[in-house]
Amino acid sequence: MRTMTGERLWNRNYCKVMAANFSLFFAFYVLTPLLPLYLKDHFGATKDVIGLVLSGYTVTALVMRPFSGFLVDSFPRKTVLMVSFAAFSIFFAGYLAASSLLLFTIVRTLHGGPFGALTVANSTVAIDVLPSSRRTEGIGYYGLSNNLAMAIAPTVGIFIYRYTHSFELLFWIALIVACAGMAVDGTVRSEKGRLRSEKLNCSLSLDRFFLVRGWLLGVNMVAFGFCFGVLSNYLAIYGKEQMGITGGTGTYFMLCSVGLILSRLQGGKALRQGRVTHNAAEGMVISLVGYTLFIMMPNMVGYYASALLIGLGNGHMWPAFQNMTINVATNNQRGTANSTILVSWDVGMGLGILFGGIIAEHFGYGAAFWTVAAVNAIGVMLFFTATRRFFLERNLNHTVR
């Protein structure tokens, strides 16, 4: 797949980084929908305690991400990548060793640190190995790797648990997949030495940790992270308790993955043409319809149709926002730009997990998902009234709009 200048999008290093990215998110999301059940069944945790325990991971990732952007922009990116991947993989063994709720909480909370660093380092290396003329399109396809993992891994995890009822097996699978991803990343090479930061800069300033030029893009992303945080963590319990669906969660995430794939087929041309705001707007509106349908039609049709729409919407929205954030940053702030958009997603995910559990405990899961629809609507309104103009005024790449 080449342009008229002969630059390949699917070069060997880019494919390796994408495969590693899929592995790390697969290892994470294969456990995500089942951890609430694990905490409830094995430790007797209540709904609000489950929310607190699970949100610790996201809070730690949130704290680590700004420092990760600084490290990736200031030191050899390959070194930062491999150290963080090794730490991320090792922590899965900690779940196997955690014999009490306290120990599990400690392991889960600390695990967020290397996850935060790893996602920033891996996405920045992906940008480095892309030819500049294919960067906007390449970032879009890169986002597909973690979005597909978000959709496919829960399906696999639920399927395995349904037939084995073994959380220990799931922890081992996550550990093995994470180690495989680390091995793949270890073979990534850069012909031009771009896996080193473009300029060693250890000076400390706010812009080294958070991309101030892209702050409103981050705020907007918080709203969408909140929605997916509630959905991914409480879907299984909601389906079981409110709708009597015991085996449909896997199908839900599979349909979500179908939507993600369709979004690439539908939105690829717009990304190649640099129409990132168009992709963002289309994705947000489709997601809003999906979340609204999910709560307003508590039956099989609304349940599964929402999965397809949410997958389709997120598949458009995520790469568009990542592209917008990177394009308001200078070249030596790529790591910071990536950490900013991921920090924003983490803030939203953490708030969703935390407040989703609290709302569900006091008002029920129906109220929690009504909150999701409202927050998503606020995010859509913010984009159309302010965020789009904010990006266009600060955009440093005039080939995107």
Residue-averaged pLDDT? 84
- The level of helicity is over 70%
Beta content comes to: under 5%
Largest sheet: none
Please tell me how large the radius of gyration is. Answer: 20 Å
Oligomer: single chain
What is the number of strand segments? 0
H/E element sequence: HHHHHHHHHHHHH
Query: What structural category characterises the helix and strand content?
Result: mainly alpha
Structural features:
single chain, disordered N terminus, 401 residues, mainly alpha
Describe this structure in a few short sentences.
The chain is an all-alpha fold.
Q: Any overview of this molecule?
A:
The chain is mostly helical. Helix content is 78%, strand content 0%. It has 13 helices and no strands. Helix 11 packs antiparallel against helix 12. It starts with 11 loop residues before the first helix and ends in a 7-residue tail after the last helix. The N terminus is likely disordered.
